[in-house]
Design a protein that fits this description.
The complex is a heterodimer. Chain A is mainly α. Chain A folds into two domains: about 1-30 and about 310-538, MetI-like fold (Orthogonal Bundle), CATH 1.10.3720.10; about 40-290, MetI-like fold (Orthogonal Bundle), CATH 1.10.3720. Chain A has 21 helices and four strands. Chain A has helices at about 1-35, 40-50, 55-85, 90-105, 105-120, 135-160, 160-170, 175-205, 205-210, 220-230, 235-260, 280-305, 315, 330-360, 365-380, 380-390, 405-425, 430-440, 445-475, 490-500, 505-530; strands spanning about 305, 310, 395, 395-400. In chain A, a hairpin with a 2-residue loop joins strand 1 (about 305) and strand 2 (about 310). In chain A, helix 1 packs across helix 11 and helix 17 (about 405-425) packs across helix 19. Chain A is globular and about 80 Å long. Chain B is of the alpha+beta class. Chain B folds into two domains: about 1-225, P-loop containing nucleotide triphosphate hydrolases (Rossmann fold, 3-Layer(aba) Sandwich); about 235-315, no CATH class. Chain B is about 30% helix and about 35% strand. Chain B has a six-stranded mixed beta sheet, with helices on both faces. In chain B, helix 4 (about 105-120) crosses helix 5. The termini of chain B are far apart. The model of chain B is unreliable at about 245-265, about 295-300 and about 305-314 (pLDDT under 50). The chains are: A mainly alpha, B alpha+beta. The interface between A and B is medium-sized, with 18 and 29 residues.
């Protein structure tokens, strides 16, 4: 009897993640594929959509802006990576945390911050205007991805053996030659890896392009949105989503290849005492604090600027409903908090069950779970949102009008974070600990409950916190979901406020940005303080 | 009483344990001595039920227990290091087995205190396990293994990760603790000093096979084979008629760095140090001396080995 009950429990625990991922990820993605590939006729339509001048322009611009954004990010972040690599452990920790702030900000907040900055600098109109230009987008992407390159390359660099470079110097190379011929080639794997990630983020960027690019600058992502939401042309949107899926899949394959080729940096006790010149460091940090700090500070100040002075009236206004929003901005924040909590709980549950299967399951099961549950990490939020829009609005799964669709979509994006932090924690558990537990009288199912879960929980909680932060700022997928008062989230409210002209609404958007940023910042501080040895890359 | 009957375990076609039979009695500490990779840890895992033997059976009190899962065997296990549960403090580690036996909280607390005082760590109850030193951690591990009062305790190189002075001290304390708690134990080690300090019975293993079984003293005095002797730290071998014989050290040691390091039971010198008579376990030997040297209170004698064989055969 107990045996049978246990078997049923095992079966349920096994199938819950599979059902979740099948219904809310695989089925929507299949719907996109089906829309484009079900017959020759559909395939013809796809090529037709992709051939239109507007699509061609969007495709070209997607690749162009991602390439330029990546190149500039790598160039401006390398000096910081160099300086970070030679810093003392304590100060390095602080600098790394500080430059990571832009990366964790919701993309919609980044866009708002740059709008605020342009206005402050007076370059939102006139001959030098950056309003709705490619450069506005590129600057925001560099701002957002700066930490990816600086942190990844920086920690890799600090693991390099400096004695090799010193050896080159002793053999007659000057500083610059030693760097170019010895250090730089050694850094290449880390640079490539972080560049691919930056490229992927820029390629799938959505909120930033929608707001900073305006109607003239379109990428694949914003075109999918325009076709699906503004024009309700699902066939055209599917065609672009199909191309998007293929491109992202290709980028992920490249990324995993590079990741595999990247040797783990050795932690060596020997480190160079030689520092970069004060002038170099000063110039770099001045630039970094202005470039990374400028938009954030401006955003903060503008949220308090009322008329010619300062005040909190923008914040007070959040409690009142404006015609542009189906509910008050304040209730949008509360909705976001509730969604993030529910989504995190779902992500945690699915993530834990999946991680256990990935680590302890049978061989075939392992790779199935590993692949199935990390796929959403690579898929762009817009594709996920669009897939849900077209697949889940009719029987057998009609969830379009359900409140649950928002936390489920967020959980789908958050689950890979839980898995990615929990699986290593589970793998690190010394197998002998389990054996000792067995000899102390613990049956296999008890071992899992009293040994594996509690130990790996620390890792899972870090992932859950990430998942929470992501849900608070989620915009891409949510923008495809139904707009009703009770499903209005903070980022969606911000987008509405930002896309309507008028200083008063803009002020509210800034106030909303600051509040969302504070929520995310609190979450990240919690993550950093619990995470032992926060060294590492993305 | 625990009995292994013709146990064999293979890993990727290579034998780890081959046709191993042995009996372990109640209230006895058996030491399995062997170099690393000799199969001794695998043997423990078979007894603990963590490794299924390819062939052979395991009996507990003459009942076949080969298929019995680990957690029902009432056999405790202690490893070399890093096996304390990191998410539990000292008390919670020790009471782990007691909780599974559904022992009441108050009784558990009493047990934990008892165990801590037994291993000399009174008051460590609430300590985080990451704050313990290597020696303290192993004491806690021992207390944890002993707490559920297993009928048999398996110790897999429990002192192997400790530095020498601490290891020597614990090697003396361990048998005391085991005897106080009347725990039967099988102790695996590659350290012969530890083996002699702890064991009632000694099993010497190498390359998946048993080489010698007996009381520590018997085995030491009469290793019976060069491998065993070498492993016990003997360095005195005499080649006799193409066959190497071992002489155990008992009375005198003759320069271990010299050409013929030999150990003898009794030495008689005659005719102006030209000839030496050795009483050994192989019978009396007569050597021709080539040199003698006084060092402090002892005398180093250098003898001509080539003639030894001749003398013995006569």
């Amino acid at each position: 009897m107990i045996q049978a009950l246990r078997k049923i429990t095992t079966l349920v625990l096994f199938s819950v993640p599979i059902i979740f991922i099948s219904c809310f990820f695989l089925y929507p993605i299949a719907a996109i594929l089906w829309n484009g590939l079900q017959s020759q006729e559909h395939l013809n339509q796809v090529t037709e959509v992709l051939r239109t001048p507007r699509s061609q322009k969007a495709i070209w611009f997607t690749f162009w802006q991602a390439t330029v954004s990546t190149a500039i990010t790598v160039l401006v972040a390398l000096p910081s990576a160099a300086i970070i690599s030679k810093m003392k452990k304590r100060s390095r920790k602080w600098v790394r945390a500080a430059i990571t702030v832009p990366f964790v900000l919701p993309t919609i907040v980044v866009a708002a911050a740059f709008e605020a900055l342009f206005k402050q600098l007076g370059i939102d109109s006139g001959p030098l205007s950056l309003h709705h230009t490619s450069w506005a987008i590129i600057f925001a992407h560099v701002f957002f991805n700066y930490a990816v390159v600086a942190r990844t390359v920086g920690s890799f660099w600090s693991g390099l053996d400096y004695r090799v470079e010193e050896q080159a110097r002793l053999l007659g190379a000057n500083k610059w030659q030693a760097f170019c011929q010895v250090t730089f080639p050694a850094l290449k794997p880390a640079i490539y890896a972080s560049a691919v990630i930056t490229y992927l983020f820029s390629f799938t960027s959505f909120g930033i392009i929608l707001i900073l690019g305006g109607p003239r600058k379109a990428t694949l992502e914003t075109e999918i949105y325009r076709h699906a939401i503004t024009r309700s042309d699902f066939q055209a949107a599917s065609s672009l989503a199909l191309l998007q899926l293929i491109a992202v899949l290709f980028l992920i394959i490249v990324s995993t290849r590079l990741e595999r080729g990247k040797p783990a940096p050795k932690s060596i006790s020997y480190s160079s005492s030689e520092q970069f010149s004060l002038k170099f460091r000063l110039t770099n940090w001045t630039f970094v604090s202005m470039f990374l700090g400028g938009p954030i500070v401006t955003l903060f100040l503008r949220s308090f600027s009322v008329g010619d002075g300062y005040g909190i009236s923008h914040y007070q206004a959040l409690a009142y409903r404006v015609p542009q929003l189906p509910a008050t901005a304040l209730s949008a924040i509360l909705n976001s908090l509730v969604f993030a909590t529910v989504a995190t709980c779902i992500a945690l549950a699915i993530g834990i069950l999946t991680s256990l299967q990935i680590v302890h399951g049978k061989r075939g099961v392992r790779s199935l779970f590993d692949l199935g549950l990390t796929l959403p990490l690579g898929t762009s939020a817009v594709t996920i949102g669009f897939g849900i829009l077209i697949a889940l609005d009719h029987p057998p799964l009609d969830l379009r009008t359900s409140w649950w669709i928002v936390p489920i979509a967020h959980a789908l994006i958050g689950t890979p974070f839980v898995i990615r932090t929990m699986v290593p924690a589970l793998r690190h558990i010394n197998p002998k600990i389990r054996e000792v537990a067995a000899t102390l009288g613990a049956a296999p199912h008890q071992i899992r409950r009293v040994i594996d879960l509690p130990i790996a929980m620390r890792g899972a909680l870090v992932g859950a916190a990430f998942s929470f932060a992501v849900s608070i700022g989620e915009f891409g997928a949510t923008s495809f979901l139904p707009r009703r008062p009770e499903t209005l989230t903070g980022p969606i409210a911000m987008f509405r406020l930002l896309s309507t002209p008028g200083d008063l609404l803009r002020g509210q958007a800034m106030a909303l940005s600051v509040i969302l940023s504070l929520i995310v910042a609190t979450t990240v501080v919690v993550i950093e303080s619990t995470k032992a040895g926060s060294e590492g890359s993305f | 009483m625990w009995r292994l009957h013709q146990i064999s375990v293979q890993f990727n076609g290579k034998p780890a344990v081959e046709n191993f039979s042995a009996q372990f009695d109640k209230n006895e500490i058996t030491v399995i001595l062997g170099p690393s990779g000799s199969g001794k840890s695998t043997l423990l895992r078979v007894i603990a039920g963590l490794q299924k033997p390819d062939r052979g059976q395991f009996f507990i009190d003459d009942v076949d227990a080969t298929e019995l899962p680990s957690h029902q065997r009432d056999i405790g296990l202690m490893f070399q290091d890093h096996t304390l549960f990191p998410h539990r403090n000292v008390s919670q580690n020790i009471e782990f087995g007691l909780r599974l036996k559904k022992i009441h909280r108050k009784a558990r607390q009493r047990f934990v205190d008892e165990m801590l005082s037994l291993v000399g760590l009174e008051g460590f109850n609430a300590r985080d396990v990451s704050s313990l030193s290597g020696g303290e951690a192993q004491r806690v591990a021992l207390a944890r293994a002993l707490a559920p009062r297993p009928s048999l305790l398996l110790l897999d190189e429990p002192l192997g990760a400790l530095d020498r002075p601490l290891r020597d001290r614990l090697a003396q304390e361990l048998p005391k603790v085991l005897r106080t708690t009347k725990t039967s134990a099988i102790h695996v080690t590659h350290d012969h000093d530890e083996a002699f300090a702890i064991g009632d019975k000694l099993i010497v293993m190498d390359s998946a096979k048993v080489l010698r079984t007996g009381s520590p003293l018997d085995v030491y005095n009469d290793p019976r084979s060069e491998t065993v002797a070498k492993f016990l730290g003997h360095s005195n071998f005499v080649k006799i008629g193409g066959q190497k014989k071992v002489i155990t050290p008992q009375a005198a040691t003759i320069n271990p760095n010299g050409n013929v390091p030999a150990v003898v039971t009794n030495v008689r010198l005659s005719t102006g140090l030209q000839e030496t008579f050795f009483d050994t376990s192989l019978g009396p030997l007569k050597f021709r001396l080539s040199e003698s040297l006084s060092v402090g209170t002892s005398t180093i004698l250098q003898i001509d080995l080539d003639q030894a064989a001749e003398i013995i055969s006569s």
